[in-house]
Design goal:
Four copies of one chain form a homotetramer.
Chain A (H helix, E strand, L loop, with lengths): L2 H6 L11 H9 L6 E3 L19 E6 L1 H6 L6 E3 L1 E7 L5 E3 L4 E3 L12 E2 L2 E2 L10 E9 L16 H10 L9 E5 L2 H6 L16 H7 L3 E4 L17 H10 L2 E4 L10 E8 L9 E3 L3 E3 L1
Parallel strand pairs in A: 9-10, 10-11, 11-12
Antiparallel strand pairs in A: 1-15, 2-4, 5-12, 5-14, 7-8, 9-13, 13-15
Chain lengths: ~290, ~290, ~290, ~290
């Protein structure tokens, strides 16, 4: 593609659909002023993290012990620390440079632009901040604690819960689905190799509904292993790569059992230049 | 202090003053639906970072080059990466465990609880998410590009700008001050050893105004070096330690020259258990 | 202790016993000129590592993929990388600052000197390089593949093997014992919580033999769990802390089944200032 | 190249020339039994490191402060730590995968084998341990403290010093040259962008002399900037890539002013699988 065409592709992707009306709709969803973070705890040496990723490491470089053994003259002291974290190693938002098919990423931008020095285009810094309405729905049916490994989310089930709650998706909304995987992982019932989530039959509904963002309390939003034998993450290709829909993964959705609710969602991805994702703590106001 | 007393101290500190009315006030400050991140870019090997801290490092563990030299059979591939960052090494919010005086942190909690394994109390995970009104004021007077090193912000100047804009601080608000230091640093005019900011004469005004959060586009919000010869960061002691006022530092306030404006601020600190701060990208809606 | 006394304590510890005669003895042990590294492979994300430690991480920051997608004009290119490793996270030598009892390390030096900024005394940089004779003995009796968890090495067995080989320990020698734990770990038969090794009954023999260094193919040289209910690592206290005997752990002793051999050992610990250990690849010439 | 041919290329490169006779020669060079490490200190946050590399970071994860604020019941405690280091970020040996020309590395092996997961061939783990004779020569003439930036080492000067000392290079030897750059860097007189070292006119002499290893107290052994406008490191191409000569860089050669001496050198590169170099502390016995 020509340099001119390439510069015309916006890294906002489907986030561009979040206009003033969408933000107004988000604010209108606020009623009780309850504020909730959907970010998982980040603990030194602990997961959950996906395959080939290592858990975060948290290094203290100054602490109370230092102050105790070498007290400051005037009584003041402080602590300081360093974090090592896979950008996908806790609650995070994928950048549009995260996946590609046949050599091109979203908007036809070549994957060759993603090198050891980071992504020259579509890094997470191009996502920008997000304020929009989120619909949070429990996709686990029938009082079970979690979906099985590779159990598809039923779109009909999700739609019926939304209908019952009087909630209709609108262009620019976010959809967060509870699959129970984080709970299954914590309970030792499932591991980082498989989980329930969206299957390819959900693609059309996600697009028709106009969701700018989809998220879940698992590693991929879509289920794993996938039903497509030729691609491990077909929804990443058909939604993120083909349409710029952003994915938010490893959400903390504890407490949303049985829920179908709306709130005002704010996402502040770190401006990590050229990164394939950003850890973040999504904030929802109900 | 007894274990009972200690468990009664809330890590929310002054954030507890942000009630439903404060959130409603934040939402009322929204008019144009412009959404802005105040997070600085995070670039591999680049600052600004404070003394004794190293710049962030960004490691790609899978990229387009890998896919080019070993193409996948079905054309799908992806990128992945890891971030190493001082928690205070870009735009961030300090935890209440970050500073102490005479062995005790906020609420009288002993600094001995902060060890190489992190803070057992008052880590950033205790801050929780924040939605409140923010007042953003340019503290650099007279068309100058930035404050001098160790130049105190004039409280009178800030108040007059707020007055002129018809803005009155209310309990639970955040105050973000533009000092120009990030610009001075980028221009090579100042370094990580000194900057303009709040001086001790601002303490009473901050407390009387009821600010839950103060922030600036410099390393410490307060000026450096400090005017107090016995303490490098007296405002951290008198505001964060004594009153639980949260500090947000290294803000990106480019574009706020001459400003005195209000907006809806959302902070989603990462839930890094036991950490002394969290990198974050504050999101403001105007 | 006074500053004067403290500066008199040598960080070489028992290595000070390695004199010219000991080096001459090491060289005299060389016969076939076979050179062997006893350093385990260091692989990204893989152990073995001890409890509370994370596996090494290896980050490529420039590689062949980068060169493939953005070829250099004149055809030259290169690769580069970064290593994150616990200093005890592969084959390594403990520093004398690694352990203490009742607040003091080797030579009576206070443990308070070991802070978040590293050890002000007895860091691994004080060990210096080592050339001495090593006796390598298979401590696993009777054709078994490895010692059981918490199975003590029999000093009688080791001595009889040495006797049979005509080898008598001399002051300044190193002793490396094969316990088989690395093999047991690789086979999934034992984990990072227990292994066979020296028990407290070996302390007198080690000291009387004049060993400056003891090593093994397990995490602690001494067995785990220990037979002493009050101390997890009694030999570290009685040998390293009390007498400055250096410990080399996680050796690669594959191929030494049934062996009792001598060689010339060279250790080049990295000069990591203030570190509690150094990864290294011991080199033996037979 | 075919898989068969590729597997025939030895990662030892020119180290294969170090035979029993070479090791015997190394041992014969020992006279005073003085043992010396040539590894630079590794200090948290300090260089020297080359362009685009960050200084090492040293994190304490357990220390005397922790023990002071939470004493163990039976008085035993310990320290532990983690090291982050560019493999070329202190004294180190380059792997044969470090450089290539026109897409191929040493032995014609494709650079495509070097990806984000490391080098599948010619990683530092293929170097193996080294014991050989080293000739250490001060290449700074005339009592000056260091070579100028881009000042070529005079081969005639080096040869005349060796001649005067009665030392003749033999096949398999190592050559370590003092350029003074580490001193110039410490003095603030030169930076990481330039130094004196070998120029292309030294290539033939190095090859004819049969050196398996060349080293220096600068970042590249060869001088920088190079005299070749089409290649930043022509000696890396013509010696390491074309002939498998190993490079050891950032040596600590303090004390070798005016020297032309021989000793027994031992190199124990860490077995970092797929790495482009290994930090190490070369050990010389005189």
């Amino acid at each position: 593609m020509s340099a001119d065409l390439m510069s015309e592709v916006s890294g906002r992707g489907a986030l561009a659909n979040i206009d003033g009306a969408a933000i107004k709709r988000a604010m209108a969803a606020v009623s009780t002023f309850e504020v909730r973070s959907l970010g998982l705890p980040i603990r030194n040496g602990e997961g959950p993290v996906g395959p080939r990723r290592q858990p975060p490491q948290h290094f203290m470089v100054r602490d109370g012990g230092d102050a105790a053994v070498a007290p400051a003259r005037h009584g003041f002291s402080f602590s300081d620390d360093v974090l090592l974290i896979p950008t996908h190693g806790t609650t995070h938002m994928d950048a549009l440079c995260h996946v590609w098919q046949d050599g091109t990423m979203y908007g036809g931008i070549p994957a060759d632009l993603v090198t050891s020095r980071g992504a020259k285009r579509l890094g997470i810094e191009e996502a920008g901040p997000v304020v929009t309405r989120v619909l949070i729905v429990d996709a686990v049916p029938g009082g079970r604690p979690w979906l099985d490994v590779a159990e598809p989310v039923s779109v009909d089930h999700v739609r019926s819960l939304l209908d019952a709650a009087g909630l209709a998706p609108e262009r620019g909304d976010a959809l967060f689905l509870r699959t129970g995987w984080v709970d299954a992982w914590a309970a030792g019932a499932q591991n980082q190799l498989g989980w329930g989530g969206l299957d390819v039959d959900a693609v059309d509904w996600v697009l028709e509904s106009g969701f700018s963002i989809i998220g879940a309390d698992n590693i991929g939003v879509e289920m794993a292993p996938a039903s497509d034998p030729t691609c491990a993450v077909p929804l990443h290709v058909r939604l993120l790569r083909d349409h710029g829909v952003y994915f938010v993964e490893l959400l903390d959705l504890a407490g949303f059992e049985g829920a179908a609710v709306a709130g005002m969602l704010t996402l502040g991805p770190l401006n990590i230049v050229g990164a394939t994702a950003s850890p973040l703590a999504p904030v929802v106001v109900f």
